[in-house]
Amino acid sequence: MEELWLYCDICNEENDHQVLKSRTSTKRGFSFQGVVKCLECNTTSSKEVNEEPPISLKLRISIDDETINDILTVDKGILLEVGETRPHPNGLILVTGLELPNKRLNQVYSQENPIVWAKKATHSKIRFAVHDSEETHSYKEEFEIGVEFNKGMKIKLEDNVARIIGLTLHGGKSVNNAFAFEIARVTCRYVKEESRFKSRYKDGRKA
């Protein structure tokens, strides 16, 4: 079953959508026209998506006392921020600086073509969106990059237990399982559990 992460006008937020009928092209970026069904509210609608080709930014990775020149590929319109982690073919990196001519910034959009300074990361911050009846709560938690998440598993966020209903990778692809460094967003629903429930994770590792 093919799925896309799209905005739902009924739910008023982005959700997983099942593709019922589609026409796609990858000649210049990614374009999609088709009929989809929201997996949250089951509403069927027509959608059109047009994404431009990704941008290649100059990347400077610090490893010990050495700086390696590389390339970071990101989508146009992405807000880059110092302190965030981003996927890279050689492993997760932590952004330590963003440089424009004669200027150092804490955040900048990708189309401004900054030089990205980074170092290899050992942990990744993941954004959680947890549905609770008509409300959605947002959290950010840090995990070791090798921690694995699966759709359907239970996790503990603060003092509440939630079940994972969606995993979205950097770039927007929806998957059933992924490692922490690959994940941009985890969508959950609160579930009722006994107070003795113990989280599967402790300090970034399975308990």
List the helices and strands and how they pair.
Layout (H helix, E strand, L loop, with lengths): L2 E6 L4 E13 L4 E9 L5 E8 L3 E9 L2 E9 L4 E3 L3 E2 L6 E8 L2 E3 L1 E3 L5 E6 L2 E10 L2 E10 L3 E3 L3 E4 L2 E10 L4 E2 L1 E3 L3 E8 L10 E2 L2 E2 L1
Parallel strand pairs: 5-12, 13-20
Antiparallel strand pairs: 1-2, 2-3, 3-4, 5-6, 7-11, 8-9, 9-10, 9-12, 13-14, 15-19, 16-17, 17-18, 17-20, 21-22
Structural class: mainly beta
Main sheet attributes: strand count, strand direction, barrel closure: 6 strands, mixed
SSE series? EEEEEEEEEEEEEEEEEEEEEE
Count of beta strands: 22
* Low-confidence parts: 194-199
Q: Please give the count of helices.
A: 0
What is the C-alpha radius of gyration, as a whole number of Å?
A: 19 Å
Strand content: over 45%
* Assembly annotation: single chain
- The overall pLDDT average reads 82
Overall geometry comes to globular
Cα end-to-end separation: 33 Å
Summarize the amount of helix as a percent range.
under 10%
